[in-house]
Amino acid sequence: MLQFENALARVLEHSLPLKRVEEVALWHSLGRVLAANVFSDMDMPPFNKAAVDGYACRRTDISQNLTVTEVIAAGQLPQLSIVPGTCSKIMTGAPVPQGADCILMVEEVVENSDGTIRFLGTDTKSNIAPQGEDIRKDELVLNAGTFIAPSHMAMLAAVGVSQVVVSQKPIVSVLVTGNELVEPQYKPQGSQIRNSNGHQLVGQIDRCGGLPNYVGIIDDSKEATCRAVESALTSGDIVILTGGVSMGDFDYVPEVLKNLGVEIVFKSIAVQPGKPTLFGKLNRKLVFGLPGNPISSLFQFEMLVKPAIRKLMGSTQPTDANIRLPLAIDYSRRMKDRLGLVPAFINLNGEIEPVNYHGSAHIFALSQVNAVFFAPIGATHFKKGELVDVRQL
User: Fold this and answer.
1) How far separated are the first and last CA of the chain, in Å rounded?
2) pTM of structure
3) Can you give the pLDDT at residue 361?
């Protein structure tokens, strides 16, 4: 069995950026990956800007009464310069008039009966945001490879980018194996069960930025598996099969992949759940064989497939960061020869709390799960309050 860290390294090694780009409207750029560096088209702020509501004046005049010559609203250009003994009432965000080197905060000023104003303090900060304080024209704003979040959309808008150059979404085909499976609209008969993995995987692909291609349920036969995989390899960038990768009499996936020329990089990793996870490649195409149990497939997608999708999109940060959180309860496990991926949720106290589940087939335990905590190889007992590594899902 391959250690998880080595398995992830091999997946990322073979996940080569597609370098297919397209332009999308800024509104539709969320969750996409920038394919080109973005530079500012102007200074920000573009002028010396009032940082507070108040009165723009000369610092040398703040000890005397000042005559208000105009009111400057945000979005309005000053009409007059500041000369000795005068000031302009100014709103936050408005351009500072020529001659002013500070702004007296409105809270620290009183209006006199003759229309002049008097500063109540003895000194003041400038309260002016100078032109170019945030960023200069032609300065780098965002790097290619950035996974676009709402905050990045604000930055793109601020520098005038309405059409964003992004990497195209990788096409990820989902094939579900198993004669016992039926789609959700059918009521299972006899030994049948409903196909949940396929729909779970489509949601995961869509959420992490891929373009899902749901092929559907294929028969547990070499011929049917071969036809479906061959077609998916031709039309897409990543093929995911769920089920059929273990050691059963009808688990044909590894043999079929080899016959199609797919190089099997690994087919077993030291994790629990998810040991019978397969990864292979054919030229630049990637193939993942995930276990049939829903918790196993959910976790192995998050741990291995998601980083591959993001790497194909050109992301410079394809893997999610772990955080350290205290355990909410004592926790023990029997198996210690594999990395434990423990279904859990982050409670309102900021603690990680393992869920009560009956094994990797217990799909209904997923209703509570929003994280996984990692139980290291060799560790079986964990105390309440102990800090553990956690990945949010």
Assistant:
1) 25
2) 0.85
3) 59
